[in-house]
Design goal:
CATH class: Alpha Beta
Shape: globular
Distance between the termini: 29 Å
CATH superfamily: Ribonuclease Z/Hydroxyacylglutathione hydrolase-like
Radius of gyration: 16 Å
Structural class: alpha/beta
CATH architecture: 4-Layer Sandwich
Order of helices and strands: EEEEEHEHHEHEEEEEEHEEHE
Strand content: 25-35%
């Protein structure tokens, strides 16, 4: 992982997602805030921060309720904004330069509506749960769009939340294309049973 990215690893009990810290010149950029006390205390301790939430699920965002960041310091998708009541909604790609290059992109995801991803220095993409399915499986149309966006994005290393493995761009896209190859005519979902 890029040397400027630090991680608090996920926990099982309570379920809390990985939390990433990217050091900029003026701000620390935090991708997801988790739900456990360890993540809360670590995020709270940083005085100048901007928070990016990949999606609204509690294991990624519940600590927002305790942190209460100002809207201008919080970047979210529309579902996260509705669920947690605020933030700057990202509908188009956004670029930040602060001694570090951060690209925040909306991400079509079968896992959660209104997902975002963050790319650090055109090198590491922090995906949250954006490449996972939901209980029905993968939505064919969303998976197609996800693959298209990832192919066009500039990164060499991909990190999914809840996993210690780091993927190359080729591995990540290859995995998603393999899933997509199981689509069936007339069925909007690729069932996990078929994978």
């Amino acid at each position: 992982m890029d040397g400027i990215i630090k991680r608090i690893e996920m926990s099982e009990n309570p379920l809390s997602a990985d939390v990433f810290f990217v050091q900029g010149r003026e701000y620390t950029y935090i991708v997801d805030v988790g739900s456990n006390d360890v993540s809360y205390e670590a995020v709270k301790a940083i005085p100048k921060k901007k928070i990016i939430i990949t999606h609204f699920h509690a294991d990624h965002a519940e600590n927002l309720r305790r942190l209460k960041p100002a809207d201008e310091d919080l970047f979210v998708g529309d579902y996260t904004a509705k669920y947690y009541g605020g933030g700057t909604v990202i509908k188009e790609p956004m670029h930040i330069e602060d001694g570090v290059f951060m690209d925040i992109l909306p991400l079509p995801s079968s896992h959660a509506k209104g997902s975002l991803t963050a790319i650090v220095n055109k090198s590491v993409i922090l995906l949250g749960d954006g490449c996972y399915s939901n209980n029905k499986g993968y939505n064919v149309s969303l998976l197609h769009d996800l693959i298209k966006i990832l192919k066009a994005a500039e990164f060499t290393t991909a990190i999914k939340s809840h996993e210690s493995k780091e993927y190359t761009k080729e591995e990540l896209i290859g995995e998603l294309e393999e899933i997509y190859s199981h689509k069936e005519s007339g069925n909007p979902y690729i069932s996990l049973d078929r994978l």
